Amino acid sequence: GYVDAKEFDVIVKRLQDKANLNVNKYSMGRSSKLLSDHVGGLMASFFGPDLKGRLSLSEFAIFLENLHWQLVKLEFEHYLPNEDGMIPAVDFARSLVTAAEMMWVDDLLNKVDANIEFLSQLDIGYPEFESVHQLQC
Predict the structure, then answer these.
(1) Smallest Cα–Cα separation from 96: which of 86, 87, 109?
(2) Is the pLDDT of residue 28 over 60?
(3) How far apart are the first and last CA of the chain?
(4) What are the b/e assignments for 65-102, b being 16+ CB within 10 Å?
(5) What pTM does this model have?
(6) How far from the centroid of its chain's Cα atoms is residue 1's Cα?
């Protein structure tokens, strides 16, 4: 099916409320918005400048898939690959920790730190980085 701009707005607000509830468990009272104000260019892109268009689930799924892979590439670039296009395995390990549940982060970071000597001998290229993120899909 399709959704119009009003229906999409309701969906986004419900997702935002749910995301904020989950974040509040760990944010210790700080207010946090995972989904920022969504009115503007994105809405115009989905529904046209007059917001009278409709968005199909398949169009939205394609948008999310493209966004996901752009973010994966951006994350890899964040670690400043060397001239060979490689990042230190330590950075890769720490990037994996970011996907963990909050309750495991400290333990996982301790494991990374405990293996610094081994990890410092390894480099990771974008294909490997991408493959790991493919497993998360």
Answers:
(1) 109
(2) no
(3) 23
(4) eeeeeeebeeebeebebeeeebbbbbbbbbbeeeeeee
(5) 0.72
(6) 26
